[in-house]
Amino acid sequence: MAAMEKAKKEAPEMLKKVKVAAGFSLGEYSALVFAGALTFEQGLKLVKARAEAMDAAANDPKNKGAMASVSGASDAVLQDALDKAAAAVGGGKKAYIANYMFPEGRTCSGDPKVLEKLCEIVVPMGAKNAKMLAVSGAFHTPYMQPAADALGKALDEAPIQMPSIKVYSNVLTGKPYASVDEIRGLLKRQLCEPVKWEQGTKDLVTLGCTSYVEPGPGKQLKAMMRRIDNDAWSKTTTLEA
Length: 241
Prior knowledge:
Acyl_transferase_dom; transferase activity; four-stranded antiparallel sheet; Alpha-Beta Plaits; two-stranded parallel ribbon; alpha/beta; Malonyl-Coenzyme A Acyl Carrier Protein, domain 2; 16% strand; 2 domains; Malonyl-CoA:ACP transacylase (MAT) domain-containing protein; 11 helices
């Protein structure tokens, strides 16, 4: 959000040309602020409420979770490995695909033991790499339902309005937000469902977007864009905060 506020002052003419917005996970709030669905201050309040809700859920001893990254495996192979890992651990423990970042680039979230088993078996099943991440929560999975419930209260009270441009959700693909109620509902669901960034980015390419701007810090989205669509990557610029 800070990068977009800076750009409004330093590159206002460029921003006037933007017709579509999207954001990865937390970045979806930045997209909604940029599109006028939320003020900067309202966006910060919701981001704070979201962070507090996720932290509380992640630190609940009964809800212990973790994350792992897996590359080089098809979704079918990865899901098969997740199922086998869950069966090996037993006790009803599960893990899920949490982020569809780029082709055969995924992060998984869920029970730590299931993810450790996943990292052990998925490479022999065909993946190139698999490793545990230094993350203490099973984000973007049903493990975050307590956080979604808490965030839902803040979203219900937030003065959200329809964005001035199309904003695409991480949860649904193929179409922008259609109503304020849908914004509230999908932001809540986003905590418990996977981020479909690869699919959503392909939707933007299909729309015929001629250039792409990534607000900083960092260039992670541009790096993922290169793996999703090389032509779109060549048309992507980064704005540092």
